[in-house]
Protein: Glutathione S-transferase family protein
Amino acid sequence: MGLLVDGKWHDKWYDTARDGRFQRESARRRNWITPHGEPGPSGIGGFPAEAGRYHLYVSLACPWAHRTLIFRKLKGLESLIDVSVVSWLMLENGWTFDQDFGSTGDKLDGLGFLHQRYTLDSPEYSGRVTVPLLWDKQSGRIVSNESSEIIRMFNGAFDHLTGNRLDFYPESIRGEIDALNERIYPAVNNGVYRAGFATTQAAYAEAFQTLFEELDYLDALLERRRYLAGEHITEADWRLFTTLIRFDAVYHGHFKCNLKRIADYRYLSGWLRELYQWPGVAETVDFVHIKGHYYASHRTINPTGVIPLGPAQTFEAPHDRDHLPPGLRVRPALSQAQAWP
Ligand SMILES: N[C@@H](CCC(=O)N[C@@H](CS)C(=O)NCC(=O)O)C(=O)O
Structure:
């Protein structure tokens, strides 16, 4: 685990010295692929949607990277955007392409380490070396290393090439989706990390409490709603999914988020099974990478690197969600009022 400073790699764990709290660094490359290369909401233009031009770097362990893999799958982008998977073991060199530990290798240039991809973009790059990373082969630049924005690009920018009209961020319910993301990101997606990487009791307790209050809230919401925003499955669901699918196997033990398991929540657990069973999604879930990465890489938390064998879990059981309004798999035609229970 480490970071680049002026293009040089430093092996350094997260700094929590100030108050024991973990703070995630903001992503530093924020350009957008758009249908014809016009600039997106941030960054510079010149990244038009094209088949074969972009390459995605992911870890199968990482919940942020997992979002992008799900969108690539559901939006029919697999033949347009190829993927390199890093090794699940992340130690002093950060993310590597070590094929003995599950990496596909760097399919573009055979690099050994992901930080080399960052310094190919900018020889003086400073910042953490994170996945996911979307690379433009034509310009030799990073398009983006921010998952929440990569999934938005995947949601819409390539539709004219693929004909895939699934919309996980429909205009009519964007306010609701944004509001959900705004509460779920700090409390749950990043909340499990804030609990797990806290180095004081107070910082841990604060994250723990917020996390379980939010899970209680979401469980109650999903008693009434098929999906978080109502009838339509949206990006808010997929963003939560990648955290909750890891929860019982990793965050509950390794990150000490152990008040309850997701399996103990009636509605959240049914919703989790339904999303897991969504066509194509199970193929994006890899517990060898997930468990191996967290338990063996975070030596400050688990010095032995021993990877637990449990828990026994299945996501194939009936999800028990069919009594709720059916999920729409096409661009919603309903009005906002109808869409919300
Ligand atoms: N804002 C980023 C966060 C990505 C992120 O933190 N990824 C983790 C893996 S789960 C990572 O690569 N961490 C390496 C590090 O921080 O050194 C996003 O959502 O894309």
Remarks:
- The chain is about 35% helix and 10% strand.
